[in-house]
Write a structure and sequence with these properties.
Length: 720
Amino acid sequence: MHKEIIQLLNEKRLKEAFAQIKEAAETLNNWELKSQIEAQQTTYHYMLQYTEMGTQDPQREAIYQQLLCKGYELADKTYFLKEQEKAYGYFADKFRKFAQTPAHSFKEIGFMLEAAKQPSFTPQTPEEENQVLQNYTLHQNTVDELFNKIWVSTQWSEEELQEARDLLSSSSMAANDRAVMVSAVTLSLLQLFDQRKFLLLLFAYQQDPEPTVTQRALTGIALATYFQSDRVRLYPELVSALKLMEDDATTLKQLHDIQIIFLLSRETEKIDKKMREEIIPHIMRNPKLRDPELKVIDMEDLEDLNPEWKKDMEQMNQQIHELGELQMEGADTYMMAFSQLKTFPFFQEAAHWFYLFSLKVPDLYKIYKGTPLNEKSLLGLMVNSPAFCDSDKFSFCLALQSLPQDQQTLMRSKLGGDEMMPSQNELNQMLEEQKLNALQRQYIHNLYRFYKLWRFKQEMHDIFKDQLDFWNNDLLSPLLLKGEYHGQIAGYLFSKGYMTEAAHLYETLAEKDPAHAETWQKLGFAYQKDKNYEKAIRAYLQADALKANHAWTLKQLAQCYKLSGEYAQAATFYRKVLETDPDNLHLLMQTGQCLTALKNYPEAIKVFYKVEFMETHPEKARRAIGWCYFMSGKYEEALRIYEKLLALETPQVNDWLNSGHVYLAMGNISQALTHYRKAQAGCESEEDFIALFLADKAALESQKVAESQIYLIADILRQK
């Protein structure tokens, strides 16, 4: 019914829409909602009456727009309430709990957070430690209530928005509390759109002094706009706020970085798969690779032990190097490592997935008792590292308590070799330069773990299953594709192999700046990778017109023409490239293949002989020469070539097959069958060979072998 109501509102049929909203709400025990629906119906009824009477009202357009927005809000709220009425699980339980026993107001929560603040002294006695723990527990319970209160709420009133703003600006709210609050608003907006919650994100982004909060707010703005764009468009105030961001260079940069991190999240599953299927199996399969002393063995010693270990070591080093490069880009390379450490009770609460890391949460305070970490210990380095998100830091510290005491002590002890470590000033400077990007990355990694690993994740739509291509949203695209960012996002997609998306961006980039040859080259390559050769050719020709006779462009044109079956054009472009690189064996082979497809066997043979002369391993060229001689009817020359190939230590199946064709065309059936059976022996099954044989039916017929004879030979070869 919700879809039908939304369709009525889209068609501006408000009278019918309000009637259906009222009908849908009848089964709900919510007098406030029913009262709101009736109030809007009454207002619209009077508007219809005044319009019919011809009454002039300068506010009519504004009131009509308000009624339309209210219609969407009430339709969404009614659907949301009806869904929660029959739902079960974590979210539904929290919703019903607050419906039966309303949460504290934002003002009350502010007082509770103030009451939970710690005294300035360091606890010395068990009683004082217990008091500290009680305060931390009260603080955590209050923040959790704040998170859930916001997450399960429907649309706020104006009074609630003002109270929420006041709380967000309050001195009683620490950075962690504000960050958790902003995350709750984001999750709530993705569940049920609310103009006032969107306004709170804008307020947090513009007014909060803490980058941790502002970057979460901006991420929330981007996600809410992306997933709720139909609703955002209903509110001119929100559209104008997004429009104003276009003139803020800082916001544009931050939003661009957030977009790239979301795109990098696409790589996370690939990274996990590589770890599961390649790197870890290598280590487990080769006990020697797990030997901690192996790192000091030089390669000569390794070869003495087992040459395979060297090969595996090199392959694993390459894989780890690739992961390292991804990590440098900001990819989530630790998801798999920490995915098994999310079963602690701490992670049962949704809010805890969005906490900023701190040892002051009760679960960690019980373990560490507020003991400061040595920043030069393994534990200290880990929890202070920007490479790990907050969720993983909590996992690591919670898991540490299960280790033997001596290992815990080792993890918390100061490391040696201080001179090899950067100074704190250097670290601070480095972190300052990268702080915003690190905070963005950590938050999005927190979000990723919440949607992928939380125990109750099945209750939510997994946003990371969507493309998260913010630039394809018409409200966000002016922000993301402004200036140099257009080309940067296109380049990122291009570099990661997302060629369809890259092509779309290069298309619009080429429209903006049609005189840039490199854009046309990349557009052509993106089309080519998508096997859209006709469009690729057009793009490459445009690039060639701007930057004539560029060797790379000419090669790609030749390749696209060849793959399109336009062999004459392909050969023309290959020859153009060969003018500047006449001994390029790959290009010569490609040219010969085009000439072969054009049945220009004499010219093709000349090209292939040149390759044979220059190539260290001329087998490929000889196979091509043999086939050209066969198709030219020069059977003796063909056999001479095939004899060389069959003299190799391991002739290919096709060598026996094609030489069999030559004998068949010459009428030497006995010799043909002998060669065919040799080819058949190299195939996995009899029918695999028959399929190979019949694939050359047209070629055999071109050499005057009768169709009936071809099928007779096939049946003879099927005989046991």
